[in-house]
Write a structure and sequence with these properties.
The first copy, chain A, is mostly helical. Chain A has two domains: about 5-95, Arc Repressor Mutant, subunit A (Orthogonal Bundle); about 100-245, GntR ligand-binding domain-like (Four Helix Bundle (Hemerythrin (Met), subunit A)). The first copy, chain A, has helices at about 5-10, 25-40, 55-60, 65-75, 95-110, 115-135, 140-155, 165-175, 180-195, 205-225, 225-245, and strands at about 80-85, 90. Chain A is elongated and about 65 Å long. Chain B binds a DNA duplex through helix 3 and helix 4.
Amino acid sequence: MSDISLLREKPLAAKKGMFTPVRSKRTFEEVSSQIKRLVFEGVLKVEDKLPSEAELAKQFDVGRQTVREALRILELSGFLTVQKGFGGGSVIKDTILKKTTNLLLDAFKMEKITVEEFTAARLVIEKAILAEAIDRADERDIEILRQNIAQTKEIIARREMATDIGFQFHSLLAKSSKNTVFVILEGAINAIHRNLASRSLPNFRAAKKWVCVHEEIIDTLIKKDRDKAFDLLEKDILSARNALR
Amino acid sequence: MSDISLLREKPLAAKKGMFTPVRSKRTFEEVSSQIKRLVFEGVLKVEDKLPSEAELAKQFDVGRQTVREALRILELSGFLTVQKGFGGGSVIKDTILKKTTNLLLDAFKMEKITVEEFTAARLVIEKAILAEAIDRADERDIEILRQNIAQTKEIIARREMATDIGFQFHSLLAKSSKNTVFVILEGAINAIHRNLASRSLPNFRAAKKWVCVHEEIIDTLIKKDRDKAFDLLEKDILSARNALR
DNA sequence: TCACATTTGTCCGTATGTATC
DNA sequence: AGATACATACGGACAAATGTG
């Protein structure tokens, strides 16, 4: 019996994760990785303009199709945007977080989520955000939140729909928490909520109510009154739940 | 002075959100959305095989390059994988969460997210999951969690790495909460954690510790001892954080 | 208002590599 | 080992969009 057969009986490779996959990168992946790396290394900065597709193809010594597939990847990943026409082309951007919430929303769409499940998760996450915001919100955050309330009141006074700006309030709250992960999670929750709410009719009387609740939440934020803040938020979220049914 | 010039002075379009963006979808976006929609509607299921690129091009009445760019998008979004060679082609998958974490890792690389932020979010979500699990876990869930502990102990006894099965424990907890939203959120958190942890060396002594903590968590789950459960979970997550630094 | 240049968007034909039968 | 079916990749061409003179 040879050593090889012994190895086959009890291969050393049995432990998971010993070897890294060697699947040869496709050309367009190589191109996108190289551009990505330049962004990470700071060689390419936001608002920098990439050469045209034809020029990139020349420099990478690949076909234009390959360059385009690489650009699609970078575009979807949030590293750049593409505009056509004169003076158009690829411009480096930093919209990775935005694209992340889009993907997260897709993940939610794949599952059948009930309003109750959604509300339970929303309560937990937004309460956590509020708790962090109470600790970390500065004057600027408060000012921006107040502007949101003022705009909302104007819109309601004109008897127009204020749903969008109502959603925005919660996003601003998330930003006040100064935690990027919370911002992303709130973005996903917000997107689901918009999705669910798009089926039900907007309600002026409800809008007048929640704008007051939002205003009170800002007060508790300044006074750092945790318990009152949680009560108000719960009230807000639960009435939103009722509107969804 | 005409009405038009008056409109220019104070355009009605000043109000935010009055108009929806009309940016005409590019053809490959239209193709990818259509395939996406079929997945959401359940017409296309996981492991279903799509026609070849040439056939898709024929059916959509577009060029092959357009189909390819659509496939790149769907591939990166986690809706399908592509294999070359005989019998190859596009196969529907559900790896959206995995792809989401790839993007989140890019955000980490861009230094938008710190380990502290990640841990803060993880604490909130997993505590909420644990709270729900205490209320909702049935005998079957407990049994599966116990099997996880037993397997982990076996692996440690063989002096092999138990990282994977350790992560699995938290996923099982999420499933016990019976809330799909929590399962998805935990999936995202878990995948990020795996990726972050893959850079640091596995630690046998640490593994022996956390398996005990996990076991104790199951006990508190049965006894419905909330406070003790939260303490244990916090211990577990904070030591995981320390391992990441 | 009208041509013009630039760049992306799209299609076609062809060739090569690759994995299975 | 050879045939087959598929993705991968290249090059050329034209259409569409967009800013400039």
